[in-house]
Amino acid sequence: MKPGALGIKILVPNSLVGAIIGKGGEEMKKLKEDSGCFIRLSQNDKFFPNSNERPCYIEGEPEDIVKAIKTVQDKLANDNPRRGPSIDETRKKQCKIVVGANAAGKCIGKGGENVKRLKSEYSVWIKVMEEMTPFLV
Asked: Cα(33)–Cα(30) distance, rounded to whole angstroms?
């Protein structure tokens, strides 16, 4: 990882992965070039535990990561599933971020103060999942 770079994992519904990869990988190549990020999507059979979603790791400068995530979210919101069950419109508007157990406490904050602040300042909905099985992309 380059100095100043960060990494983040988001979840992508398997039925919409085609919108991210594109024919022959063209969309993924364009996404990497346009954002300047390193992006890796999990293999076909590697789902986030207890879901039909595939982890997508994005690494780069913070502003580049935001650009990549925005592009991914736009593709999810505007694409139709090519395989598997369709997803509802609510899920198409969600960005699911995976935070490791070692960082969850800092994200939540003492007494949930960080979650409360994010909800208040940005009108976001945040759900903290129970402990899950470790998963690597």
From this structure: 5
pLDDT digit string (tens) for 8-17?
999 999 888 8
Contact 8, 58 (CB under 8 A): yes
Contact call for residues 124 and 118 (beta carbons, < 8 A): yes
Amino acid sitting at position 111: G
Burial degree of 92 (CB within 10 A; 0-12, 13-18, 19+): middle
Could you tell me where the DSSP H helices lie in the chain?
Answer: 17-21, 26-35, 62-78, 89-92, 101-108, 113-122
Percent of the chain with pLDDT over 70: 89
Beta carbons of 94 and 88 less than 8 angstroms apart: no
pTM given for the model: 0.83
